[in-house]
Amino acid sequence: MELLASEPDLSAAVLSQCSHLTPELALKWASIEPQRGQLNFAGADDLCGFALKNGKKVRGHTLLWHQSVPDWAPPLLREPDGWLIVSRYFGSIIPRFGDIVTTWDVVNEPIEVADGRPDGLRANAFLQAFGDGYIGRALAEARLFAPKGVLMINEYGLEYDTDEHAARRRALLGLIERLRKEGAPLAGLGLQSHLDLRKGRVSQPALRAFLDAVMDLGLFVEVTELDVKEADYTASPEARDAVVADEVRRYLDVVLDTRRVVGVSTWGLSDRRSWLEVTPEDRARFPDAWRDGSSPGVNRGLPLDASMRETPMYAAIVQALDGRRPFPAFAL
Asked: Omega before 62 cis (within 30°)?
């Protein structure tokens, strides 16, 4: 909300382009309860109030995420009654925002094949405390407080024809299959969709096969965090924008052809405020560039550029969505 309040052009773009808002931090556990029992809803209340005033919805991102566990929580979660901490947290946040948040990312990023488990689950604080059933348990707990809510898991690293991404797809499908067999109230899968041009091109065949399998398991899919990390920062801005737009078009051509896709959200709206940066490592890949004092500028991977002008990526998304509505085109 601080950015929306301090940057009127960003606020105007959000109001004109977005039907849903996704808070980056305001609904995450470590932000709301940094000290045990001391709940601070100020940021979430401000964002939800802004959304309500302007006729927008808010995505519930996210209830359980390994990178947003309060420092005080892990040892207490491992106690015999540790699940009460999770239950109390769900009970404090879900009903509070139930009028404006109808969709919750209950568990964010549960897969990490590098952790070496046969099932591919991330060895996070929740798995260590509650075992591999914690995801189904969290979904059931969320259902108690959101009887009509849409409950999802959200994951990244699914797009490329690499051993790692193939293993992540297999692990995630295995998890979904187990949850469905257990009767967990899982409705949808969020595809974070952080595309990375350094990895080459998205594998359309692998992605299509994966999404078909998700559909066969009865879930809908939603693109939840679409953006693009560039590879070549030495090209002209026009050439860079064209490459980004082409890859977004290729990706959405597959995703939007699935039988049960419900929406597309980007992770940020403008390149001015993107988590994707031109890093020192990026610059090191081009040691002879920018010696004249010029700069590659910002990473160009969102629908609006740093001046809030529509980019070719914007046009690619609109073109991909044409005829496939009604569902929201963009969310922040």
From this structure: yes
Q: Which fold has domain 2-285+294-321?
A: TIM Barrel (3.20.20)
Give residues with Cβ within 8 angstroms of 288, minimum separation 6: none
Angle at 138 between CA 132 and CA 143, to 5 degrees: 145
Give residues with Cβ within 8 angstroms of 86, minimum separation 6. Answer: 64, 77, 126, 138, 141
Residue 145 has, within 13 A of its CA and on its CB side, a CA count of 23
For 141-163, give one letter per residue: b (16+ CB within 10 A) or e.
bbbebbeebbbbbbbbbbbbeee
Cα 255-320-55 angle, rounded to 5 deg: 95
In 3D space, the residue among 3, 18, 28 whose CA is nearest the CA of residue 109 turns out to be 28
Q: What is this structure's pTM?
A: 0.94
Q: How far apart are CA 133 and CA 139, in angstroms?
A: 10
pLDDT digits (tens), the chain, 332 positions: 677 778 889 999 999 999 999 999 999 999 999 999 999 999 999 999 999 999 999 999 999 999 999 999 999 999 999 999 999 999 999 999 998 999 999 999 999 999 999 999 999 999 999 999 999 999 999 999 999 999 999 999 999 999 999 999 999 999 999 999 999 999 999 999 999 999 999 999 999 999 999 999 999 999 999 999 999 999 999 999 999 999 999 999 999 998 889 999 999 999 999 999 999 999 999 999 998 889 999 999 999 999 999 999 999 999 999 866 544 333 33
Q: Are 251 and 220 in contact (CB under 8 A)?
A: no
- What letters, b where the CB count within 10 A reaches 16 and e where it falls short, cover 42-81? ebbebbbebbeeeebbbbbbbbbbbebbbeebeeebeeee
**228: its two tokens:** 């693009």
Give the amino acid at 152: M
Written in H, E and C, the secondary structure of 28-41 is CHHHHCCECCECCC
